[in-house]
């Protein structure tokens, strides 16, 4: 009887879903993402609007925290980091859990309904933290199994603070954000829709966020940042986007 009850609870926490499919072409491999159209329609529509505008094409991965998150969608780079032009903030949809392999929206600390263009991949099961922090972080898709190779390739790079870099060693990290060359950073060459049918990825089983009733007393500001270089601090001040707690 007890075994049956546990099985029923596990089934209740997961449910089937279908999804639009997008491909994120990076210079370290392709990341294929199934979007949860049905569970988080506002967030998916918002993400696809940036995809449709080409806003993510040529953008860079600006944050990688080991065993936590890999973040992008906020900046392009020419002679310095330049913010992507953002649309109005969207309503939070904390329906699903921040488990490993999911993609979720970043937002401002202390403001649950402040997500615009930035997103992050969960590198591990962050549900105990991010499902409740700052109103819960909205999970709106999941990567395919073969996409993990590209994620691993990026996270294994040398990091200048929290920024993954290409072809540099720690001693070559610049003192300011303008000290990089564009080729030093991980670039997202394009994000394209490969199947726009919301029923194109049948039988996905996203995990429900069952912790959202818990209230986080924090403000969602940084608790997991590393490094104190001037260029890193200036980037954090520049973005204003959530430095969520690890």
Oligomer classification: single chain
Global mean pLDDT = 85
The fraction of residues assigned to DSSP E strands is 15-25%
Fraction of residues in H or I helices: 10-25%
Shape field: globular
Describe the biggest sheet?
A: 11 strands, antiparallel
Q: What structural class do helix, strand and pairing data support?
A: alpha+beta
Low-confidence stretches: 1-13, 216-234, 236-242
Cα separation of the termini: 38 Å
Report a brief summary of the structure.
With 246 residues, the protein is α+β, with helices and mostly antiparallel strands. Helices cover 19% and strands 22% of the residues.
Task: Record keyword descriptors for this entry.
single chain, globular
Question: What's the topology here?
Answer:
Elements: H1 2-13, E1 20-26, E2 29-35, H2 41-53, E3 59-60, E4 63-65, E5 69-72, E6 75-77, E7 81-83, E8 102-105, E9 119-122, H3 127-130, E10 139-143, H4 148-155, E11 159-160, E12 163-164, E13 187-195, H5 230-239
Antiparallel strand pairs: 1-2, 1-13, 2-10, 3-6, 3-13, 4-5, 5-9, 6-7, 8-9, 8-10, 11-12
């Amino acid at each position: 009887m007890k075994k049956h009850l546990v099985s029923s609870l596990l089934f209740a926490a997961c449910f089937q879903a279908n999804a639009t499919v997008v491909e994120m072409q990076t210079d370290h491999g392709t990341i294929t993402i199934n979007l949860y159209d049905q569970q988080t329609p506002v967030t998916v529509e918002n993400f696809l609007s940036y995809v449709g505008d080409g806003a993510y094409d040529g953008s860079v991965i600006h944050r990688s925290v080991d065993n936590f998150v890999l973040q992008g969608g906020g900046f392009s780079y020419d002679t310095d980091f330049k913010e992507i032009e953002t649309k109005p903030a969207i309503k939070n949809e904390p329906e699903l859990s921040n488990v490993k392999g999911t993609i979720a929206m970043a937002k401002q600390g202390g403001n649950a309904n402040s997500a615009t263009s930035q997103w992050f991949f969960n590198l591990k099961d962050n549900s105990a933290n991010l499902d409740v922090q700052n109103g819960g972080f909205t999970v709106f898709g999941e990567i395919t199994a073969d996409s993990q190779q590209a994620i691993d390739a990026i996270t294994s790079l040398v990091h200048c603070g929290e920024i993954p870099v290409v072809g540099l060693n720690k001693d070559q990290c610049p003192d300011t954000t303008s000290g990089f060359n564009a080729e030093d950073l991980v670039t997202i060459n394009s994000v394209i829709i490969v199947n726009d049918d919301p029923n194109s990825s049948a039988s996905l089983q996203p995990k429900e966020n069952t912790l959202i009733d818990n209230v986080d007393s924090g403000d969602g500001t940084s608790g997991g940042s590393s490094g104190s270089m001037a260029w890193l601090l200036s980037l954090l001040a520049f973005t204003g986007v959530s430095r969520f707690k690890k």
